């Protein structure tokens, strides 16, 4: 008898996962990250792409009953696309760092939420399936430097989202394996999605991956089969990655949530320490944007390549949200101008404004060999501001609030949720959603979906929250 393939071992891991594998500490952290994902999603509702998606859903038909955050219903796969896109849009979602790159575990959130809604699952089952998805995606990310190999981390997302969906749909281990194989074989995502000029697809690639994953799980439930030698077979993923996938899928622990990091600035994760240092210098020394002659940012090589003008392209003329949140020059400039980097700083009108464009051209980003050697164990930067009157201020900064050394507390996450969702939900609804997350493992997922359907799809409430930055 042949030994099980990698995909079959992943299927068995997902099938075997049990609620008892979630420790009280892990449950608390999952609730934190779930509330964070909901805040990110609600804060993105007025983004133009989501009106376009609703138009497309109308054109293609909305036969399903899965709830869209902000109201309305659609099919499970369309809900996966929509809700996943919301979580990613303002670039405030969680991350997992490894020597080979990173992934965003909450890219799974919208898909697993749609699958739970479709399956009329309990909150407990939703949390377990999400934990399975987090674990699978992060375990692969820890082993394979996916982006360095030329691929986008939506590859491992196809695996994790299909496995989590399959578990919610009641698939057995072999069916989950087939769901994973089906979803992944046609989801070979390329890292060029991050290259300049960065397009909308960087943010919506996870959504379309989730859309395929949830659909693949439904096909597997009906007997469709996929290539079970997805990794080991001729021209499989092991050949693409040029390495085997040496993961212990017999380990039932669901503890990777403890290694996730969170954001307080609308920026790629590599920009978090940069913006924290920039704003500390600005506030400590009372620097105004008009006084700035030059800014220099030294950062690790990966941060330089992705967002500083290195391997992924020049960062001299951002025009769109997608270009701005992956542009350290713009992010530093707008932080100095506005004293914050939130959703408002990613609006095209702000990005294209003359003051932002002029100041970003005074910013230089360079790689630092010492910082590069310490990445990703440490996210280091040095920001130096030189003023027109000759004053110069410099700060070397390691880590950031939300990182492993200084993680977000539940209370801080609640503050972030209120900041992002205040324009779309009154205080009573916001507090009800928070309480529902607190009690998530004791209530049906339908209770949470009913609350999310009441959120306004457009800003309608006066905002008084000062943010968390």
What is the radius of gyration computed over CA atoms, rounded to a whole number of angstroms?
Answer: 22 Å
Mean pLDDT: 96
Reported for the largest beta sheet, the result is:
4 strands, mixed
CATH superfamily of the largest domain: 2-methylcitrate dehydratase PrpD
Shape: globular
Structural class: alpha+beta
Task: List the total number of helices.
Answer: 20
Largest sheet strand order: 7-6-8-9
The CATH class label of the largest domain is: Mainly Alpha
Characterization of the model:
The chain is of the alpha+beta class. The protein has 2 domains: 6-261, Orthogonal Bundle (2-methylcitrate dehydratase PrpD); 269-398, 2-methylcitrate dehydratase PrpD (60s Ribosomal Protein L30, Chain: A, 2-Layer Sandwich). 49% of the residues lie in helices and 9% in strands. It contains 20 helices and 9 strands. The strands form 3 sheets. The chain has a 4-stranded mixed beta sheet. The chain has a 3-stranded antiparallel beta sheet with strand order 4-3-5, covered by helices on one side. A two-stranded antiparallel ribbon has the order 1-2. A hairpin with a 5-residue loop joins strand 1 and strand 2. Helix 5 packs parallel to helix 9 (201-221), helix 6 runs antiparallel to helix 7 and helix 7 (154-168) runs parallel beside helix 9. The longest helix is centred in the first third of the chain and has 21 residues, at 123-143. The radius of gyration is 22 Å and the shape is globular. The protein starts with 5 loop residues before the first helix and ends in a 17-residue tail after the last helix. The mean pLDDT is 96.
């Amino acid at each position: 008898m042949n030994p099980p393939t990698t995909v079959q071992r992943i299927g068995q891991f997902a099938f075997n996962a049990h609620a008892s594998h979630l420790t009280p500490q892990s449950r608390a952290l999952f609730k934190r990250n779930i509330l964070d994902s909901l805040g990110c999603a609600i804060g993105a509702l007025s983004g133009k792409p989501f009106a376009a998606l609703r138009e497309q859903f109308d054109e293609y038909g909305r036969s399903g009953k899965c709830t869209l955050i902000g109201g309305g219903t659609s099919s499970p796969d369309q809900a996966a696309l929509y809700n996943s896109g919301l979580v990613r849009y303002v670039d405030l979602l969680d991350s997992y760092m490894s020597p080979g790159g990173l992934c965003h575990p909450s890219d799974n959130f919208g898909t697993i939420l749609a699958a739970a809604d479709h399956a009329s699952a309990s909150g407990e089952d939703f949390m377990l399936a999400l934990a399975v998805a987090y674990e699978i995606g992060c375990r692969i990310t820890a082993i394979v430097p996916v982006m360095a190999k030329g691929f986008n981390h939506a590859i491992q997302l196809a695996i994790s989202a299909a496995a989590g969906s399959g578990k919610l749909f009641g698939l057995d281990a072999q069916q989950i394996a087939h769901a994973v194989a089906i979803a992944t074989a046609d989801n070979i995502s390329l890292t060029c999605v991050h290259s300049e000029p960065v397009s909308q697809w960087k943010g919506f690639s996870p959504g379309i991956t989730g859309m395929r994953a949830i659909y693949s799980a439904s096909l597997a439930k009906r007997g469709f089969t996929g290539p079970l030698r997805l990794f080991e077979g001729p021209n499989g993923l092991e050949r693409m990655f040029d390495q085997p996938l040496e993961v212990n899928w017999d380990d039932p622990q669901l503890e990777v949530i403890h290694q996730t990091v969170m954001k307080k600035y609308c920026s790629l994760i590599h920009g978090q320490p940069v913006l924290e240092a920039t704003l500390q210098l600005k506030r400590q020394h009372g620097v105004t944007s008009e006084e700035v002659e030059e800014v220099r940012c030294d950062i690790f090589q990966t941060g330089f390549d992705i967002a500083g003008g290195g391997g992924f392209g020049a960062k001299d003329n951002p025009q769109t949200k997608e270009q701005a949140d992956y542009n350290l020059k713009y992010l530093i400039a707008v932080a100095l101008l506005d004293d914050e980097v939130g959703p408002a700083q990613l609006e095209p009108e702000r990005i294209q404004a003359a003051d932002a464009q002029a100041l970003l051209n005074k910013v230089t980003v360079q790689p630092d060999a010492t910082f590069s050697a310490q990445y990703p164990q440490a996210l280091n930067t040095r920001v130096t501001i030189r003023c027109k009157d000759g004053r110069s201020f410099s700060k070397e900064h390691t880590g950031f609030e939300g990182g492993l050394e200084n993680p977000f507390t539940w209370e801080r996450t609640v503050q972030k949720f209120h900041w992002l969702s205040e324009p779309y939900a009154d205080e009573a609804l916001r507090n009800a959603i928070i309480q529902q997350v607190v009690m998530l493992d004791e209530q049906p997922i339908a209770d949470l979906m009913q609350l999310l359907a009441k959120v306004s799809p457009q800003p309608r409430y006066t905002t008084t929250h000062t943010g968390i930055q």
